[in-house]
Amino acid sequence: MPASGWMRGIAVLVGAGCVCCSGSPTSDHVSGSGVIAELPVTVREAQPSVVPRGVSAQILILGSGFEPGATVSFESAGILDTAITVDSVQFKSSGSLLTYIRVAISGTPGKRDVAVRMKGKRGVGTELLDVLMEIQLGEGFALGTNSLGLVVGGGSSSMGDWAFVYGAESGLVLLPVGNWREHESGLYINNGPPRPNMATAVLESGIVIGDDWEHPVRWIPEGRGSWRIEELNPGYRGIATDGNEGGVIVGSGWGFGSDPFTDPTHYPKPFCWSPERGMTFPRADFENRGVSWSWAWRTTVNEAGIAAASLSPLGGPEQEGIPVIFRCLSADPVIERLPLLPGYDRGLATVIADDGTVYGRLFNFPSGWITVRWHPSGGGWSAPEAVPGVPAGATILAVSRSGRLAGYTEAQFSPEFWSQPGSRRAFVWDPVLGAQAAVDPGRGLSYAWGVQDGPGRSFTIAGQVSLNVVVWTVR
Fold this sequence. Notes:
40 strands, five-stranded mixed beta sheet, Immunoglobulin-like, Methylamine Dehydrogenase, Chain H, 50% strand, 475 residues, mainly beta, 1 helix, 2 domains, single chain
């Protein structure tokens, strides 16, 4: 079933790039008074290293010999690039400076040198920042949105290691990274390099939730087009996935400076965080199949502070999950299992609504997955039931405040909905319009990761088509 006329897809994100670009310290250029001797200031890296024209971004400059009062400029062949305005430079340490820049839409595409000056000293890193021609479709994910139309997400490794906010007024803003990168640039965890920073949710207040190099963080707005990064629990490793307007943030993590795959005492476990209580860890009063249940897949939380997640055995796949809830505002949060249907031995709890309804899936062999929901009942949750109007086998990833649902479905479960067997397709369910395909089947794999209501009957969906960031506006 093709997308109907009320769907309008808008592609919004960036081109490809790599965070770790090479740069070498240089001596100053020739001036009228001769050549200045090489000084002990080095500039070796810019994070992110890719910026499209017409955006605002915070760039972390890494090097050595930096001092308070340092200034930063962007040059090409020794000539100042006036299309890049440096609004501020924050001294973080002798090895890092945080700069806030604006790139004019008239800027010339290409690589720029980064120059740092202070007290007569200067260092230059060659071709550390690449200015792209335009905000163009690129690889990544749009994972969350709010009623103001702000969309957040992040890029894959081919897109650069950074998170973004996109809005009609602010345009594309690249969120700042943490200065812990300076100290961890050689650290590898999870049997590979640290994952890119990712923005997973945005609140009505404009606070953005996510992680940077596997540090759970939130980005706090500081005026139009500007956010500052705040680590939730300094040094703790994990992923923050959702939050509510009351300040509760949820996710999963594995400890301080540890690798859960080599240190079994630091296996991933769900957490709650709030400004008042800091980070707390709900305890599990159950075991299943003789294994420790740990990894909390896609933890979400509602405005009442109740979180839903799917726990998987240590080292096991997400499909081996148990759907659970836990109450973050409780004095002693306990992980509670959601009931399953007879004959179904595993499942996923993918999102929780503000009224306490939990949406997810259950698995049975050989029948496969079914889409279900659990209603709050008598202090607990009722037996799971089918979700009317939603394509069979769908995975519901988001619910808006008015009850709209979004996610993806599998063709093998919904032949009437899709024409390509075995493929995943984004969908949205509206109380009036029913289920609608968000993308024509011929465009490849697609997911709807977030949905939120706008003015009147409008709403916004954040997602991806193939590996490309897409935002749908529905009017």
